Amino acid sequence: MARKNLTFHLAERPKGNIVPGKTFNLVETDAPTADDLKDGQLLVENIYLSLDPAMRTWLYDIRSYTPPVAIGEKMRGGAIARVLASKSSKAKEGEFVFARSGWTEVAVVGEAEFDTIDLPKGTQLTHAIGAAGMTGLTAYFGLTEIGKPKAGETVVVSGAAGATGSVVGQIAKINGARVVGLAGSDEKCKVLTEELGFDVALNYKAPTFAEDFVKATPDYIDVYWDNVGGDILEKALARAAPHSRFVICGGISGYNSLDQENHGIRNIFQVITQRIRMEGFIVFDYRDRYPEGKKQLGQWIAEGKLKAKETIVKGGLKVADAAMSSLFDGGNTGKLLVEVKPIDQEEVSRYVTKYLAR
Ligand code: NDP
């Protein structure tokens, strides 16, 4: 009997946060098979699906860095996937790859749609999608190329307990900076200071946040890493040091309302008075340098200098839409993944020992 395959397709452009069971249609079809492969292609099954806030921005019909997902189109996304059959010289059956295979269980991907996984000993398979994958690379290149923190400087990170922010703060510590993390709960703040080595962590939902923020930045902010935008960015502008660098990585607080009239940013005048350098970037800008970034991040993880936090949601592909909406409620600490297919952890260990032990 043919294997069945679940896939999410975009049903409608949401107003506000995505609504599980409504924004996407979950469709069941027959899965593709090895017979469907053309030269250069792989048949893969997704194991861990990556969920990223930016996916929400792909659901608008607006000008962006990537075309919008069309109504009826398979939802785009990346996953750690196992190769079921191969007609590519780049990956063999049984190997794991990072595949841009979308929100589905089984897919056919061409060579431009997958990357082989190459991590050093001491790392885990899931790190290829988080701390030594896309979000880690975002932190690494954004901080080293734009933020450029120096020893003793104050680095403030918003969204600090998330996938990108948690790595940004730890790299800033490796560079000798004083690091202040901002996160949405006391539990997350505890993780930042007690597990990840941040000097200070502030709960931005606390009623005393405005005063806490001023107290935590007595020498002002040299590097501000923005993952959230909105009024936290405005507060950071008011605390900017002369010649500070503002790395504009994301603005999740506005992602559910990009179709509404955008309001101005208060305190933007400080960009002039403090000669702030404010720069946005997309991690893809550094594609040619990914091997360098992955090597460094993997090495830091292996040496215990970088801790890779993850939240893995179980329940198969069908929970992906609910898991995605939870990003906007702070449901995750570290990288958010959906376990599309439970995997024998011994198989993963054997794989890691065989392939990632370089
Ligand atoms: P995260 O793991 O950080 O998850 C999102 C977190 O954002 C949540 O856990 C929540 O944590 C926080 N959050 C949600 N809503 C709000 C809000 N209204 N105000 C403040 N915080 C909020 O996701 P990623 O690490 O994948 O992404 C972080 C940011 O980086 C996003 O903006 C993303 O778009 C951007 N990004 C940019 C890239 C680029 O190339 N420029 C590449 C990758 C990511 P809390 O509990 O603290 O509220």
Structure commentary:
By secondary structure, this protein is an alpha/beta fold. It folds into two domains: 4-130 and 309-346, Alpha-Beta Complex (Quinone Oxidoreductase, Chain A, domain 1); 134-285, 3-Layer(aba) Sandwich (Rossmann fold), CATH 3.40.50. The protein is 26% helix and 23% strand. Strands 3, 4, 5, 6, 7, 14 and 15 form a seven-stranded mixed beta sheet that branches. Strands 10-9-8-11-12-13 form a six-stranded parallel beta sheet, sandwiched between helices. Strands 1-2 form a two-stranded antiparallel ribbon. α7 links the parallel β12 (240-248) and β13. α2 (134-147) packs across α3 (163-174) and α2 crosses α8. The radius of gyration is 21 Å and the shape is globular. The two termini are 40 Å apart.
Which structural traits does this protein have?
single chain, 358 residues, alpha/beta, Quinone Oxidoreductase, Chain A, domain 1, Rossmann fold, 2 domains, 7-stranded mixed sheet, 6-stranded parallel sheet, 23% strand, globular, binds NADPH dihydro-nicotinamide-adenine-dinucleotide phosphate
Give the topology string: H per helix, E per strand. Answer: EEEHEEEEHEHEHEHEHEHEHEHEH
Number of separate helices: 10
Q: Compute the average pLDDT.
A: 95
Please, what is the oligomeric state?
single chain
CATH class of the largest domain: Alpha Beta
Distance between the termini: 40 Å
Radius of gyration, in Å, reads 21 Å
Q: What's the count of strands?
A: 15
- CATH fold name of the largest domain: Quinone Oxidoreductase, Chain A, domain 1
Strand fraction equals 15-25%
Based on secondary structure, the structural category is: alpha/beta
Low-pLDDT ranges: none
CATH architecture tag of the largest domain? Alpha-Beta Complex
Helix content: 25-40%
